[in-house]
Amino acid sequence: MSICWRRRGWKTFALDLLSSLIFAGLLVPPTVRCRERQNNLPPQHYSDTGTSYRDLVRQSALSSQRIASPGERPVPQYLYSVHNQGNLQMTITNWGQFGVITERGVPDPVTGEVVNGLVYPRNIGVSYFNGDIAVGAIAGTDTLVTTWEEFSPDVAPFGEFQMASIDANRSFFSRDAHSIFDLTCTYFDTLKDTPFVPINRFDNRFHKPLGLRVIQRSMAWSGPNLDDFIIINYELGNTGLHFLHDVYVRFDEESFIYDLILDSLGSQLVGFLPDWHITLECGVPDTVNVAYVTSYTGFLHDFLDDWDTRSPRAAVGIQVLGMPADSLRLNYNWYAPSFGGFGTDTAATWGPRRRGTVEDPFRQIGESWGRPEGDANEYYVMAHPEFDYDQMYAAVDFSSRGWLPPSVIGWLTSLIPFGIDAKASLSFGPIDLPPRASTEFTIAVVGGDSVHVHPNDFLDRWDIEYPDAYYHSLDFSRLAENARWAKWVYDNPGFDTDGDGYRGKFRICNGDTFWYEGDGVPDFRADVPPLAPKVHVLTRE
Q1: Around 98, how many Cα atoms within 13 Å sit in the side-chain half-sphere?
Q2: What residue ranges do the domains of the chain occupy?
Q3: What is the value of pTM for the model shown?
Q4: How far apart are CA 275 and CA 272, in angstroms?
Q5: What tens digit of pLDDT does each residue of 59-91 get?
Q6: How many Å apart are CA 175 and CA 77, to the nearest integer?
Q7: How far apart are CA 200 and CA 209, in angstroms?
Q8: Which of 218, 244, 292, 392 is geometrically suited to a Cys-Cys bond with 317, CB 3.0 to 4.6 A?
Q9: Which H helix or E strand runs over 413?
Q10: Shortest CA distance to 526 belongs to which of 117, 189, 237, 221?
């Protein structure tokens, strides 16, 4: 990274020097840097032993394309696929992850084009984060959580993705499709032992299944206003014998701005955007509710005088579009791990925590204030009402508002706001799930470009103790607009889906009716450009 003395002298130099050390990896333990170079993957993809669990998954997947012979142990059919239809390109798995970076990328099943990670805008070669689903519940006397590592698809050939499209010209056209490209798969949490499910090292036991079945259906469109998001619908079923009480669902974002072309990590910030200051027609406020990841400077590796075509100026995040009716709240939490990444020492992890009260005592969730350790603590964080402030404000003392002070580890306090990796989570619940019952919920992975407006904003405005000036230089208007379109595709405003006479919320102004919210019943319907007609050429003999 270039060191410049312009604009604000020693302060600029200090910021550049600190950023240079981060980018160069000089603040990362040497063993971790070796892991980072191994297989060209970001460091958080590795377990404590330095072995990638996803590598084990891929190795087992090589043999999962065939049906096991008599006497052989059946192998889950672990598979990757991709969404490559619009401006947002994303890998997706049949075990609960999306945006995963693999060693060689994943070919588009239709075009053959290779996609890797979660790239936005299209073909920029920069991935923002990988996401996953986790589910926690009380089953009998146990408090249990199932994470993505503990989900598995069925054996071959039943674990395959099912493709469908509204385009009649495609071989997988279906009248039941919702989008240009639907991908549907099913996975379970019923496997308990290695090598397919890792040992729970915090609880020191094998995985205890909740008896879950997840039917995952991801949908992508192309065309104006429709190609900056991917919608994922989940049907969560209880296949076990226990009544699952107080179920909470969590979606994680493991953030890293990753240069897929130069094979290097950038720096990033996580945050939550509840709304945006632009209102819709008739003065309706535009709610957003996106847990986002963005670069902390808008640059990949160097402070330049201007943006280039690969500058990560966007924000990409997760938006909860629909929760079960009995879900009462949405929580947002994040923590920053030690420089070893997500799979290493937890003692140095830190995240915002509320101060304990008589009614709500403080709970120690592990060795540190950041990462929850063990199923009971993971469930506590999912279920405990808390909405964290943004990573950018990690060095600001919010004690007067009921928060614990910033990290007591001085160097960590100074570096967290500078864009070190963070893991953010959106959780909602509680939901009761009797045996053989199911419930549905939906998210969107949504992107918005040009969040970083001026190349000099970070150098000119950033102050670790007073980050407001820099935050207000960011422009989330495109992210807000694309999130609005995702909501409208999920639930069309002014359309009575279930025929009960209710069409949603509206306002009347200047003699016109403006519908701004749907009837609460999902539609998954978009006004796409007319598709080419299917033509059969008949030859006359």
Answers
A1: 28
A2: 10-517
A3: 0.86
A4: 9
A5: 444 334 445 555 567 889 999 999 999 999 999
A6: 27
A7: 12
A8: 292
A9: helix 410-415
A10: 221
